[in-house]
Amino acid sequence: MVSNLENGRRDIRISFEFFPPKSEEMEAQLWNTVAELQKWDPEFVSVTYGAGGSTKVPTLAAVRRMISQTPLATAAHLTCVSATREETHRVVDEFRAAGVGHFVALRGDPPEGIGSAYRPQPGGYANAAELVLGLRALGDFEISVSAYPEKHPESRDVNADIDMLKRKADNGADRALTQFFFDNDVFETYLERVRAAGIGIPVVPGIMPIQNLTQLKRFAGMCGATIPVRLDARFEGLDEDPIERAKVAADVAAEQIEDLVRRGLNEFHLYTMNRAPLVGSVLELLGLGCDTERKSAGAAA
Ligand code: FAD
After folding, report:
1. Which of the listed residues 106, 155, 180, 194 should we mutate to test ligand 1's pocket, taking the one with most ligand atoms within 8 A of CB?
2. Torsion angles phi and psi, residue 222, rounded to 5
3. Which end of the chain has fewer CB atoms at under 10 Å, N or C?
4. How confident is the prediction for the chain on average, in pLDDT?
């Protein structure tokens, strides 16, 4: 269990990732989650873009509502899958008209699904590094990109990944948000190699609180992310005990962040899976102090 700090917010900055809803029920869940999590005062929130280059419409709708109805600084993810440069530019214009000034610029996965060969669209951006350059030419956007501490599944090796990250940084990316990982030693080694390659942008650890270990294992396998066996032991015997499972999940994520803070990190990108309770528990354990707590602490002082 990690310790709380007593006096207000620690110097930890957080961002939240959401995905656009696919049904009315999921729509309600997203907006309840956003309402619940905004009290944690994130630096920014981001909304993912249709996998495999599927339609931009749900992302645009969610981003538009986020910008018009909440105070949250909102980034739109954008991929270059199945789109010519002109088509990508039109999408950028639509996001810009909705008030977007921050993109998470990605190549994206092949429309046939993760694991199939990626073929750049003729006349389109071939990878995220080219997309970053294109975005830089289109406007004064804040640009985040991906990074893979355990390497991207398509990459030859971690060096190939770091070369791509360098191209993205050299082309104007402001920060990298990592794929989720659970082994902080792996992340630290990766970060040392990133810095040794002359990449100076912030590399923000992506933290995935474990809502469901079995499902996560399936997904992690596709993303090339490893789930250490020690986590099996933490969740063992808890399949029928959702309350204890949620406590363990919050502990695991808070302990990971606390350890990264000890290693000098202070920015974290949380994959919320559009659910508030677990993420809220993690932030409480870290003693971040949400808006309401800070206001009452200020009044008492
Ligand atoms: P790039 O940065 O262009 O490449 C990633 C790595 O793959 C490179 O290091 C390179 O070595 C290697 N690589 C790239 N192309 C090739 C190739 N042709 N042959 C060999 N190696 C290659 N996906 C979505 O669909 N929507 C989202 O909103 C979304 N959000 C994401 C957010 C984050 C923070 C992260 C980490 C991932 C996200 N993804 C999303 C997943 C991402 O689209 C996939 O991982 C995709 O396969 C790669 O996109 P990229 O921008 O990371 O690619």
Report:
1. 106
2. -70, -35
3. C
4. 92
Cα(224) to ligand 1 centroid in Å equals: 12
Give the residues across from 103 on adjacent strands. Answer: 76, 143
User: 246 φ, ψ to 5°?
Assistant: -65, -35
Is 1 inside any structural domain?
no
Neighbours of 175 (CB within 10 A): 19
pLDDT tens column, 47-65: 999 876 567 899 999 999 9
10 Å Cβ neighbour count for 236?
10
Tell if the pTM clears 0.90, that is, is over it.
yes
Q: Active-site residues: which are they?
A: 17
Residue 189 lies in a domain: yes
Structural domains counted in the chain: 1
Structural domain span for residue 131 = 6-300
Residues with CB under 6 A from ligand 1: 48-49, 51, 77, 79, 104, 106-109, 118, 127-128, 146, 152, 154-155, 160-161, 164, 177, 179, 206
The CATH number of residue 239's host domain is 3.20.20.220
* CA gap 145, 218 in Å, rounded: 24
252, part of any domain: yes
Task: Report how far ligand 1's centroid is from the alpha carbon of 21 (Å).
Answer: 22
Mean pLDDT, the chain cut into blocks of 10 residues (301 residues total): 47 96 95 97 96 79 97 97 95 97 95 83 96 98 98 93 98 98 98 98 98 92 92 93 96 98 97 98 91 59 47
Atom of ligand 1 nearest to the CA of 118: 18
Q: How far is the CA of 226 from the centre of ligand 1 (A)?
A: 17
